[in-house]
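Q: what does this look like with NDP bound?
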Amino acid sequence: MESKIIQDFMDEVKGRNGHEPEFLQAVQEVAETVIPYIITQDIYHGKNILMRMVEPERAITFRVPWVDDQGEIQVNRGYRIQMNSAIGPYKGGLRFHPTVNMSILKFLAFEQVFKNSLTTLPMGGGKGGADFDPKGKSDNEIMRFCQSFMSELHRHIGPNTDVPAGDIGVGGREIGYLYGQYKKLKNEFTGVLTGKGMSWGGSLIRPEATGYGNVYFAENMLKTINNSFEGKTVLVSGSGNVAQYATEKALQLGGKVVTMSDSSGYIFDEEGIDTEKLKFVMHLKNVKRARISEYVEQYPKAKFVAGATPWHEKCDIALPCATQNELDGDDAKMLLANGCICVSEGANMPSTPEAILAFHEAKILFAPGKASNAGGVATSGLEMSQNSLRLNWTREEVDAKLKQIMSNIHDKCIEFGRDDSGYIDYVKGANIAGFVKVADAMLAQGVV
Ligand code: NDP
Ligand code: 2IT
């Protein structure tokens, strides 16, 4: 009966979104955990609530023309998916990457709705971006692209409507150019974007928040088995914003991080990536905008493995912080065979369904990104609060709030995810807890 309802639901969603595999993957995971819960709750019966949640309130696509340094006219496609505004203005990042399409942005926007609900802050869910590849572009090209992108996006966003932020390919530099163009067009200095610079409305700890929050979440999970990061070997994938600060916090808590990666391959440093080496990586990726393979030129004892992910190295803890579906069923089996006890997702949906199944069957600690990477958007929420109050909190204040939010999310996952044997299914916990708040708000607001 339960599986028939899930199947019928998914058939209808597939009928409407058949060519969107990532979106269907994200919806399937939610349907499998939330529908059995809905069945037990009379208030949701006859409301078609989950079907309403999988349909974006609005999906916008637009032309982004720009002129490159050679004077040639280029055209990209821009998007903003405004998924759900039941509990607050749409909120979520912008991704600039050549793979960006409707499926990827709808999966990200859908996950964002649940994630933002879990943060306890009043934020709806959205996501956007463009199929623009920032790699190899000059600063001026990036600026012209951002200006053209915002020339259309500004019509659809606002501090009480939709508040974008960064994601893959969109960091402090891009947020600056986007904000400048918004301000010029609207003649308004408002908190319309988060991840802003400190002298123009940004929040301390926002750059660190996703990576730090992920490690705080993992620390909470480890505590449930009386364990910690101290002395543990940690695999990190990615070398961007999330990976860098996940590495930094893991080091601070006594972990030994031995890998980082990018889309070309991964580096393995048996001696551990210490604070000084991490500083080198940050300069390499954020200032030189170079490849992670250059790490081994600076530290020749390390190795670079081209075209591979880090998951076949031995570890206690894995922190996937690069991109979706970067850790598959075989990778999961290898991690388990090598003794991994904890996987905490910094990226969005980095583990495939087969990998998640393997982790659950082995009953190790596994946190889905919508719970464990929520620290980024939560701190964006704190940036919005500071903008509205027109004041700035200290580093210590923001960090304390971030820690508390991650701990609260962990508690919520236990409340809805612990089974009779005591095992905590964080996927189920996060999906149901995220769902309840949004669904209740939608019920209260009627069929709109
Ligand atoms: P960055 O652009 O700073 O870094 C992305 C990293 O992932 C780079 O090392 C990049 O390598 C690698 N990567 C990107 N695409 C691929 C790919 N297709 N295959 C292999 N590696 C890839 O992005 P972030 O660190 O901000 O984002 C990383 C993940 O975290 C994403 O899933 C994002 O959605 C998620 N996230 C980000 C938040 C934030 O606040 N920034 C908040 C919550 C989640 P390369 O340089 O070669 O492209
Ligand atoms: O996936 C995410 O949560 C983000 N990219 C951050 C979104 C935000 O609004 O800070």
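The chain is about 50% helix and 15% strand. Residues 166-169, 171, 210, 238-243, 262-264, 321-323, 326, 346-348, 373, 376 surround NDP (ligand 1) (CB under 6 Å).
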